[in-house]
TrEMBL record, chains A, B:
Similarity annotation: Belongs to the AB hydrolase superfamily. MetX family.
Family annotation (NCBIfam families): homoserO_Ac_trn (TIGR01392), PRK00175.1 (NF001209)
Protein's UniProt name: Homoserine O-succinyltransferase
EC numbers on record: 2.3.1.46
Chain positions of site Important for acyl-CoA specificity: 330
Annotated residues for binding of substrate: 231, 362
AB hydrolase-1 domain: residues covered: 55-333
Keyword Transferase: yes
């Protein structure tokens, strides 16, 4: 287990953390019917599990997230984990009270078994042969991790975006093992527009000649340009139009519009996007990107419940918090209201909050006073056995 | 001049049309300061120019438009010109009253001088050496075409999107030569989000290895995959989210979500987008796409007027019609209201209509009763000398 230590990172930080690895050595059957011979999940924990293991909170990550949700990996780390604003001592997910588990999902590229891992049958990286995954596969593999950690019941399962889909699926698949479910900036299924953006991103990747039908690792290359284009599409659509405007306006990076000049005038937003695309394509695996976006596209909460979300949620026992952000147009408040309405009609306990924000879908990752308050208040209602 | 003939295409059609070519043989200085040694513009006309040449209407096209705005090129043509809904006998731009001129803009790839044309200095295609263009270059070249056709004053200059930018620029550059100005689904300048989408599309094109720094024609190839990705981005963003949802929902093209299946499940919207991307990349020139999107990005109506749109529009003498569409999020109604407000504050005559539509930016091309009525009513107010 990784230790939270007092650290020079300040009182709200979980401090230095060390990733751990959970190895599952038995065959694992996927929703597709295919089997993995076993798998590894890399994860981090923050806080202490209490005596009756009733204070455990699972963090489910989104498209490009990892197990590194909070704290720092070394003393000279410049950036903390991706959700450090909301996880730590005194933060909404208060590590003084909760034992927090964050993992890199199966199929990921941050250490867990995925397309870049060695396929034991061939001795080579899985690459494009890695099985397609569904959200329920993540839930089932997270369940095995929970058992490994001695957690029978989660005090809460929490996630934003694709992570919210995992949280909801948890509440339906293991209803007596999820006491609270926090679903942020998510949806019961993607819209056609959302699928279309994902498809365009995938087209950019798979049409890059360096993709080699997914076998780029064997060719010692990577479809970096395609991945960069995919990330650029993501970046624009995860921000709001107004947010981009406030951040960049039409400011020029260089050049001018003066008559007589024929150089390529560049706006700040252009070089920012190109930079973001390049950084991402250096560190992320293209097959993982394809796999994650496909799981997003295919997720449909109520498919196995006669397409009736109310029937689906009647299965759940958890108390729900559903949060959306006003300018999020890829997972719009309308999608979250659909979740909240279905929960109410299923007679479940649900709090719904729509947060004013100028940051689009990315708002779920960013500091915001009202969001923090809503989140904290809900988490504060969670009674852990050791306290009661 | 092309003739409108009675035809089997029905009473509302201009019938068969034949493109013409205007050749300008003198040096033409661009906004950048560079010179073209001359140029050709391919154009079509519909209706008859009246005796005092007071009934001429100029159609300015958008990003991927052409001179073929109405009618048919042959008896077995299946699709009419791109704005056939609005140009023809009895239509809003009524060819019984107006002499309509539609051209392919300089830098285009439908017959006018552009990157695919031969550079007389080298004997090879211009390719990436074709000069950068500004909207005012189109206006100035259109002015030369007008002179060639014996038109001193346009009864109206009309355009949607990038075409609306040309119409506005006409009204500022040649105020006594534009009596009416119709600006549809346009903006005084692009937002950062809009620039960001264009930049992502350009990245997809220029990072395609077949782009060869723009010299793909010399290599007898073309960056088709990049161009297809660019078009896919365009397609999604020119439609509204609801429009895409209504058209495709989450319908499957093949496959199913049944357990046990690991094939690539495909949504209808995916294959539609891929098809659209492929069709476009077969016929459109990548350098033209770059050039057109850069002109879009750089357009800023009031830049030379101290960034004051009111000061800019005080230059204009035309009567304006400004139209926007409720679900257009790339050229949102807000942008059109800014135009209308600046015109009012400049004491100009302006009608503004916001049309309810589910078709996003594409609505300006599509049939809509209210849009048609507004458009027709405005055009009907135009008095041509021959009538008065």
């Amino acid at each position: 287990m990784s230790a939270s230590v007092d650290s020079p990172f300040g009182p709200g930080s979980v401090g230095l953390v060390t990733p751990q690895c959970f190895q599952y050595d038995a065959p694992f059957t996927l929703a597709s019917g295919r089997q993995l011979p076993g798998f590894e999940l890399v994860y981090e924990t923050y806080g202490q599990l209490n005596a009756d293991a009733s204070n455990a909170v699972l963090i489910c990550h989104a498209l490009s997230g990892t197990h590194h949700a909070a704290g720092y990996h070394s003393a000279d780390d410049r950036k903390p984990g991706w959700w450090d604003h909301y996880i730590g001592p005194g933060k909404p997910i208060d590590t003084n009270r909760f034992f927090v588990v964050a993992l890199n999902n199966l199929g990921g590229c941050a250490g867990s078994t995925g397309p870049t891992s060695i396929n034991p049958d061939t001795g080579k990286p899985w690459g494009p042969d890695f099985p397609m995954l569904r959200v329920r596969d993540w839930v089932n593999s997270q369940k095995l991790l929970a058992t490994h950690l001695g957690i029978q019941v989660w005090a809460a399962v929490v996630g934003g975006s694709l992570g919210g889909m995992q949280a909801m699926r948890w509440a339906l698949e293991y209803p007596d093992q999820v006491r609270h479910c926090v679903v942020i900036a998510s949806a019961m299924k993607l819209t056609a527009q959302n699928i279309a953006f994902n498809e365009t991103a995938r087209h950019a990747i798979t049409s890059d000649p360096e993709f080699h039908d997914g076998d780029y690792l064997a060719q010692q290359t990577s479809p970096k340009q395609g991945l960069a284009t995919a990330r650029m599409i993501g970046h624009i659509t995860y921000l709001s139009g107004d947010g981009l405007g406030e951040k960049f306006g039409r400011e020029l990076r260089s050049g001018s519009f003066a008559r007589g000049q024929d150089s390529l005038v560049e706006f700040q937003v252009q070089s920012y996007l190109r930079y973001q695309g390049d950084v991402f394509s250096d560190k992320f695996d293209a097959n993982t990107y394809l796999l994650m976006t496909r799981a997003l596209d295919y997720f449909d909460l109520a498919r196995e419940y006669g397409d009736d979300p109310v029937a689906a949620f009647k299965t759940a026992q958890a108390r729900f918090l559903v949060v959306s952000f006003s300018t999020d147009w890829r997972f719009s408040p309308e999608r979250s209201r659909e979740i909240a309405l279905a929960l109410m009609n299923a007679n479940r306990s649900v709090c719904y909050a729509e947060i004013e924000s100028n940051f689009g879908h990315d708002a779920f990752l960013l500091p915001s006073e009202r969001y923090e308050t809503v989140f904290r208040n809900f988490m504060n209602t969670i009674v852990t056995e050791a306290q009661s």
